[in-house]
Amino acid sequence: MKRFVTAVFKHETNTFSPLPTPLSAFGRYNPQSGPTSGETALRAYRGTSTPVAAFIDIADEQGAELAFPIAADAVPSGCPDDSLLDHAADRIIESVSAGCDALFLDLHGGMVTRGFDDPEGELLERIRGAAPDLPIAVSFDFHTNLSRKTVDNATVITAYRTYPHVDMYESGRRAGDTLVRALAGEVNPVMVWHSLPMLTHLNRQTPSRQPMKDIMDRAIAAEASGEVLNATLLGCFPLADIPFVGLHGIVVTDDDFAGGTALLDELMTMAWERRAEFVFESEPVERSLAHARSLGDGPILLADHGDVAGSGGSTDVMAVLEAVLREGFEDVCAGPFWDPESVARMVEAGVGATVTLQLGGKTNFPAIGLAGRPLEISGRVRRITDGRFTVTAPMNTGTSANLGRCAVLDTGRVEVVVSEDRHEPFDTGCFTHAGIDPARKRYVLIKSRQHFRAGFEPIIRHVVMVSGPGITSSDYGIYPWERVRRPIYPLDLDAPANLPVRPNR
Ligand SMILES: [Zn+2]
Asked: At 70, is the secondary structure helix, strand, or coil?
């Protein structure tokens, strides 16, 4: 009987974010529980739409025993301690050393610890040191910052090809199936990759639209037709001041180095020629809100993308809600905003009570010189919840969301959801679990830039992007870049692409 090992090791690190990331944060779907393992991890992930769920299915299909030494996944924030990396590496190596035919890793690829710019590469190198010939499949997030060390120490790499990430399971399938074919001696995976010096904007990366759509479609077609085993573009996570940010491509072939290089060069050339289209131009909040008011029927979704939990934001910057109140918007639901103190106040006051809160504004952002400023707001406590619901949207389907305790403040014009934990609203459950139906509101104010589309687009009529202040701002001029490679586009408009792709075997 074969023995497989799988593990989850995920964090998107915003190196400018002041929010701490302790080990206890790494139980993403069960906040404060820390990493899980074994049967608990299997129960949490089996049957979900995640990459590791595909690995679990593959082990079942192969009749293989499956060990699950660690599942560590945290909501994006600042740099975790190196002890997380040591902990994960030790657990995985211990499990692999007990006998292992193949390792299947569900990684994010955008992690930066205090001591390592590239903890995924470090993790793979340590595993490779302990098991030099071990076949290793890796499924990454679309927002991976790829390094040579990572590629050199893996056998097969794929990543999500959607944003919002609705193909997580498929990514695990693609990597896992190729590795299984390699184990059977059917194919000999060879990888080629390239990293363009492009600091793309998160608002302009999605493969569902141009400029990325044609490029990703070409990669998908090459894989579907059998031209290559796997082909993936990685949009990168740009809010990381490290040398590895860039738009990357990675192609896996069946021992066809030249063919892989030719496809990679085609993909990279397309991306580079479109580099100006990957730049997002911010506009003042007031102009975006005026545009929203000019639109017809609702619901109109206001997406404040400057303070997004899914990119390391605090979700307690109140500027856009303050503007919405000041401008007299009515029939609005908003949130979730992160403020455990205000939740406690409302729980203590009880449903039906009238309260005045100093809402949010508890976080300072020294990296960008932004100080926290609470919003004084009064209203009636409408509802108190445990913040738990099962995700039904196409992203993370079937996983359990847990926002900590939540409370709804009703000002008469705006129903505000306040939560104990940070949460990016990619599913309408963050409102519906609290008795609010966003489909019946004129305005829905959330803090998200792209992931909301999976869950909210079916119920809304218009989307207005709002460039609110915060640590996930799309204005790259506010960040104190020090360690990113230079030159890089668009910080340096004359950055060279280093094309054509040079063979790197
Ligand atoms: Zn992502």
From this structure: strand
Q: What's the domain count of the chain?
A: 2
Would 493 be classed as within a structural domain? no
pTM: 0.94
Give the pLDDT confidence of 258-298 residue by residue, as tens digits: 999 999 999 999 999 999 999 999 999 999 999 999 998 99
Q: How far is the CA of 234 from the centre of ligand 1 (A)?
A: 10
Residues in the chain: 505
The token pair that represents 247 in the structure block: 């738009």
Q: What are phi and psi of 202, to 5 degrees?
A: -55, -35
CB atoms within 10 A of CB 337: 27
Expressed in angstroms and rounded, the spacing between residue 422 Cα and the centre of ligand 1 is 16
Q: Which of 59, 49, 123, 117 is nearest to 93 (CA)?
A: 123
What are the Cα distances from residue 329, in Å, to 74, 211, 386, 441?
A: 35, 34, 29, 11
Residues 363 and 457 in one domain: yes
Centre of ligand 1 to C-alpha 165, Å, is 7
- Based on the fold, state whether residues 174 and 313 are members of the same structural domain: no
β-pair partners for 365: 370
Residues 348 and 453 in one domain: yes
pLDDT in tens, 215-245: 999 999 999 999 999 999 999 999 999 999 9
Is residue 14 located within the same domain as residue 153? Answer: yes
Distance (angstroms) between ligand 1 centre and the Cα of 357 equals 34
